[in-house]
Amino acid sequence: MFNVKQQLTEIKNAAQNVLNDITSKQQLESFRIEFLGKKGKLTQVLRGMGSLTPEQRPVIGQLANDIREFIETQVNVISSKLEAEQTQQQMLKEKIDITMPGKKQRLGKKHPLTTVLDELTAIFTGMGFTIAEGPEVELDYYNFEALNLPPGHPARDTQDTFYIDEKVLLRTQTSPVQIRVMEKQKPPIKIIAPGRVYRSDAVDATHSPLFHQIEGLVVDKGITMGNLKGTLEIFCKKLYGDNTQTRFRPHHFPFTEPSCEVDILCPSCNGKGCRVCKNEGWIEILGAGMVHPRVLQRCGIDPEVYSGFAFGIGLERITMRRYGIDDLRLFFENDLRFLKQF
Ligand code: DAH
Fold first, then answer.
1. What is the CATH number of domain 112-339?
2. Ligand 1 atom at minimum distance from 174 CA
3. Distance separating alpha carbons of residues 332 and 113, to the nearest angstrom
4. Nearest CA, atom 9, ligand 1
5. Which of 144, 170, 175 to mutate to test the pocket of ligand 1 (most atoms within 8 A of CB)?
6. Alpha carbon of 7 to those of 48, 49, 51, 54, 201: distances in Å?
């Protein structure tokens, strides 16, 4: 009996010693198995109780239970302590310093063509225009024929394009959108139609087989050249500043009559002639004119009742001028060193 008692006391002391050194949950678990497990120290001692007398058994049993309870309580206490420490440490680790600067998000930028297109769109929608669209793969009829360019017309030569077949092609201009709108919608009409156009041109600093135009069309009763001039003058002033001087120079387009080109006085030399305006003193901005009566008629609009004006702007040209870009190819190469500058 004395022997068993001593063994139990030793177990208690040993447990106490080990407990003081426990710093992790794994250690605590091995400790629990070592002392309280099925093959643990305490269990082993209790197995030997068979050799005790009936009087000794309850005494030793009581002692063994006290020690088990003691060890179990200790395990629970240490377990809670370790858990609290772990939570504390995690909170420290996950603490956010709200005074630190945030992580910088690298945002992309708009392509310069998009920026200028947005600006032009804003100017025209501000004047009451709405936006129309048409297909890039277009019928010869809309791209040429309905615009007074029948097969064999010499003006087709300047707009050589890519043919899908004899009747289907990549549009060379946004002007076919005029026809599509007038076929569907009766006046008053006041639209712009921005979009891609294609021509079979070799690539160089001022030519690309793909570029962008913005078409404009206004049709109503009593529209005159005065409306054309007023609208496009305001457009130039909004785009280039209130002091911009414009010039309407006679020109020829098959689908307008009369036709003109609109220039602005060169802002670099004020008309004296310089590199920017190639010594012209003026810079061409767009083509325009009064919609040809035959074009109106073909779309079912009576030219005796209605009249209209139209214009076409080259987006690349305007953008190049805006930013002083001297090579058209830069727009399409997607070189970040170029694109990041805008
Ligand atoms: N489509 C013409 C071109 O590509 C530009 C143009 C000129 C459009 C006069 C028009 C216009 O609507 O009236 O050269």
1. 3.30.930.10
2. 1
3. 10
4. 288
5. 175
6. 11, 12, 15, 19, 103
Q: What is the pLDDT of residues 294-334, one digit of tens each?
A: 999 999 999 999 999 999 999 999 999 889 898 999 999 99
Gap between the Cα atoms of 186 and 311, Å rounded: 19
Residue 335: pLDDT band with limits 50, 70, 90: very high
Q: 170, 198 in Cβ contact below 8 A?
A: yes
Report strand pairing: 189-198 vs 282-291.
unpaired
Per-residue exposure over 319-342, b if at least 16 CB sit within 10 Å of its own CB, e if not: bbbeeebeebebbeeeeeeebeeb
β-sheet bridge partners, residue 313? 214, 286
pTM above 0.90, yes or no: no
User: Which amino acid belongs to residue 179?
Assistant: I
Can you tell me the mean pLDDT for 219-226?
A: 98
Tokens 């070592």 appear where?
A: 34
CA distance 210 to 148: 23
Alpha helices by DSSP H, listed for the chain, are 2-20, 25-36, 41-47, 56-93, 112-126, 140-143, 176-184, 225-240, 293-298, 315-323, 336-339
Backbone φ and ψ of 277, nearest 5°: -100, 15
